[in-house]
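User: For a benchmark we're assembling, each entry needs the component sequences followed by a predicted structure for the full assembly. Here are entry 17's components. Please fill in the structure.
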Amino acid sequence: MFALLDVNNCYVSCERVFNPKLVGRPVIVLSNNDGCAVARSEEAKALGVKMGAPLFRLQDLIRRHGIVVLSSNYALYGDMSARLMALLADHTPQLEVYSIDEAFLGLQGDAASLQAEGEAIRDKVHRWLGLPVCLGIAPTKTLAKAANWGAKRGIAPARNGVGVFADPALQTMLLAQMPVGEVWGVGRKLAPRLQALGIDTALALREADPAWVQRRFGVGLKRTVLELRGVPCLELEVAPEPRQGIVVSRSFAELQSTEAALRSALVAYTVRAAEKLRRQSSVANALGVFVQTDHFRRGEPQYARSSVYTLAMPSQDSRHLIRVATAQLRRLYRPGFRYKRVGVMLLELSPAERGQGVLFAEAAPTSEALMRTLDAINRKMGRGTVGFAAERLRQGWQGRAAWRSPAYTTRWSDLPRVGAGPVRS
Amino acid sequence: MPMLLAAAMSASESCRQEQSRRLPLYSSRVPAGFPSPAEDHLGDTLDLHELLVERPAATFFVRVVGDSLLGIGVHDGDILVVDRSLQPTHGHIVIAVVDGEMTVKILSRRGGQVRLLAANPRYPDIVLAEGQQLEGWGVVTALVRQGLAKGVAR
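Assistant: Structure for entry 17:
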């Protein structure tokens, strides 16, 4: 059996653990650059805040209902996610980390024992981390996703945030209530096409002829149909670490035209990527850079290029990687365009072996110690405390984050404060 | 060879530096003496985190603000190690949420009454009213105090 566990309104729930005042209030968390709502508390959903709604359209609602607005705090969400996944990995090695707030687990047993196990996991996550989760349990991954959808809505036999849909008759009743667009693997593009053909529920999709579905929509959706029928087509993908590539990229808050602006952003992203690389004890064998304009602005000249450069020596040295990245940017950059995005990719990663390559890399002996020191300082004092001049911190390219909460769990100066004083009441 | 080297050094384009491999003469130190008797123990160190944090996933650090627990040696500015996985019982130092604020107190459960005790005569205890839920956040397992190099004389 597969279980799909996810954290309810994950980002809002993480914020509430460390700021209990937010409990019971409408809260939204914004995307990078404070652009739009990417997480909403139940109270905010009830007020009509839609997923992805731009902040400027919400101003009126926010004022009227006193909605609490927060910038996204990925240091916090990432740490809480790592704790969650560690807890789950302790429970079973049959674990696939699917996203920051979702995981598939492989579980065994009859419906009653699965229900009990699901509730035990849910209680443990709540006690240890303060995060509310739901679990859907079913014979395939696609059905487990559907079961989770049912668990969130309390569709029988789901209770206490856990829904075991092992029995085909129960699956039928669940899928009959589920809009086809909610099915894992259908998505926004496919849903209207299916609806136009009269397939508007998950049940209707399950009943469609798999051969016809394959001819019309491809093998991917056929697999979805089979999975809805209880035929497992997708296996648990247990820990594909270390990662095969690291990409760091962000959209600019405002479009940028100069190479200098692109370069300082690129350097900052390369520093981030190199930090991640060292944290997982890997070296990169290749480095790619990409730039692109905003293709939504149809009236404007468009440009997008990328290049990948194979390093002579595998490296994890920020200075080295910055040199290679900026040199590539020099060749990719064209004046006369307004750029939306620049990014760096570290590719062909391999485990860093101690002493490897010392013979040919003249910088290597001091590099490792320097990078270690750099990482230690930034970990302790906060990201960006010590950096490279080319990063030009706090320039126009840097994202807005006007309402970011403290990095409660990853920075000493940001620890949650507990009162040991008079109780206000 | 020195010419080539110089050319590579002056090339501002790092990619070209990348392609012309410079080969330094040294590689590593060559051991030529008696091996250190401590060799087998290299890498053995004491890690405070290992000592203080039994369950990393459930353990959080918080900072004390105030002196209501001075009587049991908890000072303003101390860092507390909090394990959320432990079931709070009578006598535990706990982090609790009172009126939306995180507070640190001593948990007392006696005669069916739940109280949050201070350890400072200047602060009253909190008595939970009948039916009022105590919202526990975690149990304090250890305390870290820095800055003692400044001395403790008053």
